[in-house]
Design a protein that fits this description.
single chain; mainly alpha; 8 helices; 72% helix; globular
């Protein structure tokens, strides 16, 4: 399956669609306390769109990770509520991103570039390991942001975890050692985080 440019354009179109959708939901939502969470999701998709269009070496991995987040979220929703049309569209469109960006022919415009491999002294094994790490980080980033920014009591510590996750992903794609510690810190759940206050 070739059509590299066409598949790249279609995948980036789906990413920017969800970026605009979540931004619109954030602006139009009757619950203003949810605005930060929806804007964060919009930013996740907007970054994927920009990276794929710009051809960054990590963009394909990042976009596939984000697509898996959407597909699995839709699958969980269908397991709970049944095959609702909106959930089918959500899951199908995210799976389309992953399929459109898959295949050896699609590696060339992204991680197949020689410049970054020479710059960071990466062999094929190291590239595969980095790719899996970026996909896992991109998959988990929306969940961390939602957990941190959704309205709940005592949001300060989880907001800090979200910032660590964002910094960790940014450092990971730049092959910075500290990114591993930032991502590990983001996964530490603060004591009592997410529990409602029982005192009135």
């Amino acid at each position: 399956m070739k059509l590299i440019g066409e598949r790249r354009a279609l995948a980036s179109s789906v990413l920017i669609f969800y970026a605009f959708l979540y931004a619109l939901v954030a602006i139009a939502s009757p619950l203003p306390e949810w605005m930060p969470a929806y804007l964060a999701l919009a930013s996740v998709y907007a970054l994927g769109f920009f990276a794929v269009v710009a051809g960054y070496f990590w963009a394909r991995w990042y976009a596939i990770g984000v697509s898996l987040f959407g597909a699995i979220s839709a699958a969980v929703g269908m397991w709970q509520m049944g095959p609702e049309p909106l959930l089918l569209i959500l899951g199908g469109s995210h799976l389309f991103i992953a399929v459109a960006l898959s295949g050896e022919s699609m590696q060339g415009p992204f991680e197949g570039q020689e410049q970054w491999r020479l710059r960071f002294h990466m062999d094929d094994h190291a590239v595969r390991r980095l790719g899996r790490s970026v996909m896992r980080a991109a998959f988990g980033l929306p969940y961390v942001l939602l957990y941190a920014l959704a309205p709940k009591p005592g949001n300060a510590l989880v907001f800090a975890a979200a910032m660590l996750a964002v910094a960790g992903v940014a450092g990971l794609v730049r092959l910075r050692t500290w990114s591993v510690f930032a991502l590990a810190g983001a996964r530490v759940r603060p004591a009592g985080g997410g529990r409602a206050d029982s005192t009135h």
